[in-house]
């Protein structure tokens, strides 16, 4: 007790171990912990900010708030430009745009995806007009925000199948129209076979060989996307008696139990010309991030998805976790597992925290 040792603690001399190796020695001092830390802290430059945009002219009554993602909003084009400006000010210079297509513009094939005056295309142009090369704009290539079935591809409703090659043709048109609007990188999130090669060829033929492709390479059929589908109102539709529509995305997105299969996707994407390969979701799939990191020279991205955001936020709002600490820890763990880039709804907030830390 004299030494501040709790009563009942054995005397030091009686419990002494003969240990040559004591890992705790290297953890004793803050100075030294900092000196030997294996993973450099995340920089705002590593972060990509996903943003939801809606059309306030066609759908003026759209709720800004997303119930399952407190703190994340749907933006008008004008608001998205302001939000990206705030992100750039704290060092987050990359964003990815997700349009909420008005119901009146959704069709079976999703042709709105390559409309030059479409919401995504208008947003890209507005961002580039405002910030030019100060911002690096990624876009989502997939049909689910555009088709009435809520699938990433075209549904053949007689046999209940998502068609591959027909879908890829649409995705090529979508990617070219996004490139034409001025995006820096197209990010196909659809998981159709052969789409990276086809999109690469379509971009090149249209004169956009400088536009990059970030492939959603190992994208899993995950329940963690729920809040995202709320945000865009893009969940797979139920179909009905006359129309067969698959109720989930398991025939194109990967099975959560699979690991080796990610290498097969990686090989295809590399051969087809991907510039960046992504793993999605993030935290439950750190092993897959590490697998890609160890098997490619390409940059690897991780998507800290909507459900991960929602879980973190819910716990934080209840006072059950320290939000700032768990978010910064998660970002460090993405880097440790091998991610160069992290897509996260916390991008702007994390960069603000990093700035505060640096100024302290
Ligand atoms: C659509 C797409 C999804 C996400 C990004 N692009 C949803 C899905 O595949 O159903 C999910 C992102 C998130 O949950 O944050 N192709």
From TrEMBL:
It is an enzyme of class 4 (lyase). SUPFAM superfamilies: Aldolase. Keywords: Chlorophyll biosynthesis, Heme biosynthesis, Lyase, Porphyrin biosynthesis. Homooctamer. The keyword Coiled coil does not apply. GO terms for molecular function: porphobilinogen synthase activity; zinc ion binding. It comes from the Eukaryota. Pathway: Porphyrin-containing compound metabolism; protoporphyrin-IX biosynthesis; coproporphyrinogen-III from 5-aminolevulinate: step 1/4. Pfam families: ALAD. GO terms for cellular component: cytosol. PROSITE patterns: D_ALA_DEHYDRATASE. It catalyses: 2 5-aminolevulinate = porphobilinogen + 2 H2O + H(+). Residues 5-26 are annotated as: Disordered. GO terms for biological process: chlorophyll biosynthetic process; heme biosynthetic process. Its EC number is 4.2.1.24. Coiled coil: none annotated. This is Delta-aminolevulinic acid dehydratase. Catalyzes an early step in the biosynthesis of tetrapyrroles. Binds two molecules of 5-aminolevulinate per subunit, each at a distinct site, and catalyzes their condensation to form porphobilinogen. Signal peptide: none annotated. The keyword Lyase applies. Belongs to the ALAD family. InterPro entries: ALAD, ALAD_AS, Aldolase_TIM.
């Amino acid at each position: 007790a004299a030494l501040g040792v709790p009563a009942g603690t054995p005397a030091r001399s009686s419990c002494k171990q003969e240990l040559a190796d004591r890992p705790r020695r290297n953890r004793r001092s803050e100075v030294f912990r900092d000196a030997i830390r294996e993973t450099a802290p995340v920089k705002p430059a590593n972060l990509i900010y996903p943003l939801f945009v809606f059309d306030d002219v066609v759908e003026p009554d759209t709720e800004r708030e997303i119930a399952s993602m407190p703190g994340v909003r749907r933006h008008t084009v004008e608001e998205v430009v302001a939000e990206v400006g705030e992100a750039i000010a704290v060092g987050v210079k990359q964003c990815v745009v997700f349009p909420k297509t008005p119901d009146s513009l959704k069709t079976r094939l999703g042709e709105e995806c390559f409309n030059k005056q479409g919401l995504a295309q208008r947003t890209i142009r507005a961002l580039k007009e405002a910030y030019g090369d100060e911002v690096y704009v990624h876009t989502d290539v997939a049909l689910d925000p555009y088709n009435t079935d809520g699938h990433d591809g075209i549904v053949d409703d007689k046999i209940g199948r998502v068609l591959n090659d027909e879908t890829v043709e649409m995705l090529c048109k979508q990617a070219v129209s996004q490139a034409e609007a001025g995006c820096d990188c197209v990010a196909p999130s659809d998981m159709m076979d052969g789409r990276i090669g086809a999109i690469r060829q379509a971009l090149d033929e249209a004169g956009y060989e400088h536009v990059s492709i970030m492939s959603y390479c190992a994208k899993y059929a995950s329940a963690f996307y729920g809040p995202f589908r709320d945000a865009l109102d893009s969940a797979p539709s139920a179909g009905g008696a006359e129309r067969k529509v698959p109720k989930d995305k398991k025939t194109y997105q990967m099975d959560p139990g699979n690991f080796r299969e990610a290498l097969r996707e990686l090989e295809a994407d590399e051969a087809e010309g991907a510039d960046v390969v992504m793993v999605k979701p993030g935290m439950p799939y750190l092993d897959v991030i590490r697998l890609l990191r160890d098997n490619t020279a390409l940059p690897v991205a991780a998507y800290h998805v909507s459900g991960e955001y929602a879980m973190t936020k819910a716990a934080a709002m209840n006072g059950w976790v320290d939000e700032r600490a768990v978010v910064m820890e998660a970002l460090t763990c993405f880097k440790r597992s091998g991610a160069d880039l992290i897509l996260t709804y916390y991008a702007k907030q994390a960069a603000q925290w990093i700035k505060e830390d640096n100024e302290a």
